Structure formats: C-alpha cells, structure tokens
Amino acid sequence: MAVVKANAYGHGAVEVSRSLIAQGVSRVAVVSLDEGMALRTAGITIPIVILGPLFPEQIQDLVAHRLTPVISDHSLLAALVRATDSLQGAYPIHLKVETGMGRLGMATDELLAVIDSGRLPASLQLEGLMTHFADSDGPTTSQTEHQLVLFQKAISGLTARGLSIPLIHAANSGAAVRYPHSHYSLIRPGIMLYGYHTLPESIPAPDLRPVLTLRSCIAQMRTIQAGGTISYNATFVAKRTTRVAVLPIGYADGLNRRLSNRGEVLVQGRRATIIGLVCMDMVMIDVTEIPDAAVGDEVILIGRQGTDQISAADLAEWTGTIAYETLCAIGPRVPRRYRQA
Ligand SMILES: *Cc1c(COP(=O)(O)O)cnc(C)c1O
Prior knowledge:
By secondary structure, the chain is of the alpha/beta class. Helices cover 26% and strands 21% of the residues. Strands 8, 9, 12, 13, 14, 15, 16 and 17 form an eight-stranded antiparallel sheet that branches. Strands 1-2-3-4-5-6-7 form a seven-stranded parallel sheet. The radius of gyration is 24 Å and the shape is elongated. Bound molecules: pyridoxal-5'-phosphate. Pyridoxal-5'-phosphate (PLP) binds at residues 3, 5, 51, 132, 172-174, 188-192.
C-alpha cells in the first residue's frame, strides 16, 4: 500500500499513483478525504485508504467515492452504517489500534469492547487492522518491539472472536527495512518510495535514489561592490565585488527561509551560496566563483548536476528538519514535469 499523502510527499499524487499502479501497486493510502476524492476524480480506481481522521459529515462523500476509511473511534460506525445501508455487499473498513504513537486509534481493550458490544454490524466488512510505529527509525528497537507486542494482542483478540482480517498492516518505510516480522499482509512505505529514509547509520539502507529534481534558472545577473547589500533587511553585505544571480523561486515555492545566507545550489556543476534573505518568490545566490554564469542557466536546488549532488536530506540538515518536510513543502506553484524512467 503506497502512501501518496501530501501530494505524494510533494511529487504529485495523481502521477505518482498512476506510475506505481503501472508497476504493480494495488492499493494507495492518503490522509484526508479530499486527497482521496481527488485521486478518484483523476480516474484512480484501485482501493484508496484514508489514513487520517474522518468526521460524520464527510461520510456521504467517502462512500460516494468508494474510499476505505480507517476507523479510530467507534462513534463513526453509526454514520457509516447509515451511509452504506442501501449498498450491495459489506462496505470495507480498517480499524486502527493505538499502540504507542499517541495519535489516532483505539486501545486494544476499547477495540475489543466495540466488537463485543456488537457495534461492528455485518454491513461493514473488517477488511483491515492497522497500527503505526512511533520510532521505527530511532536508534533503539525497544519501543517498536513493544508496539508489536500490543498490536499482536489486538490481532489475537480479534481472531479469538472468530474475525478473520484479510489485511493486517503496520510497517512504514523504516519498519519495512528493519522489522521483517512487522510486514504482515501489507507494508505502508511513504518516504522510501521517493528515494529517502531516516534510518540510523548503523542500519544498512536499501539502494534508494531520490526521485525528484527541483530546478530553477538564473533570471537576472548583477554585480555589486563591497559594502553593497542583498535582499530584505540587508542581512548580506558584500565583502568584495560580488556577482549575484537572481532565481525566480522563493519560500512560497517551498524554499525554506532558513536557507537564507546559508543554503547552497548547483550552477554549471558548481556550488553557489544563497545570499540574503530568501524572499517569497525569489532568492539570490553568489556566483562570483562561476564567472560565465549567465541568464537562463539551469540551477539545481535538489538533484544532480555535473558530478555534484544536493539532496532533500541536505536541505533538511541546513534548515533543521527532515527530508519529509523539505519534499512536502514544495509548493503548488512549482510545475511538476514527469518523465518515463
Ligand atoms: C505517513 C504514514 C506512513 C508512511 O510513512 P513513511 O515513514 O513515509 O514510510 C505510513 N503509515 C501512516 C499511518 C502514515 O501516516
């Protein structure tokens, strides 16, 4: 079950889903109802699981788009039963067990109480049972192993009550690599699909390649003298005669403002530093050491150019976050172009 939430981590949920389906993926997951509806509207017909919370007023749309809910609270079951009343066959749902993430889900006792009190009617099919790990990429394994014990209790409790659950799933990317016994019937990789991971260095990571390149180009060149300043609040003051290139990409496009006076980009296969504050729509770089840099030159913000490479993980390090956030932040104004691998 490929996780394509948050516009497929910034890559474009529709195109990524189509590509994954062509490669044999049979189920995708998103977080919100709107994300699921957008995939259906784009013609994605495989099962789509909504991982995030749902509210009673969303159930009509959920069912109309044949989206599979993850139920974390029994209060939603009544609304689901009403909305699926007139349908042929049982409507598939997944239940979520909270085992240590402290986020969505029912504790095992709560879950079993729902079953025992008959609140799971026959018109709903218990297609899946899931939990989510808090620390699958952490330095130690104890929390994940503990979560697995709790999850196993929930599975045993349900099977002891005669329920068979076709789809049992727990593993995100980190667990998919590190905890083979957490694979059950499905894994839910997200970040790894896009070529990144956050596993500790002691864990051998699979051979992953970043999928996405973020590129801009030089829109204008200028030369400033020593003492000249760049961008808002004049945080960059030139110490020498400086060749400055202006790029039409800014924080509204996902270029984190913490890259101001700090981040690096590639021009003609060489590194150039961001100077001054990143603006909403533009950013300036120092190309003094790249004398033939010119208007129209390709500039790589994430990706490879020549023999050098800058990854989303590098940008994340420069800005105090993780590659997940760097990728998700790439804004809707940035055109996505896809090419066949
Ligand atoms: C985002 C998410 C995933 C995917 O996690 P990765 O670390 O990107 O592999 C899996 N399951 C749930 C519930 C999620 O929210």
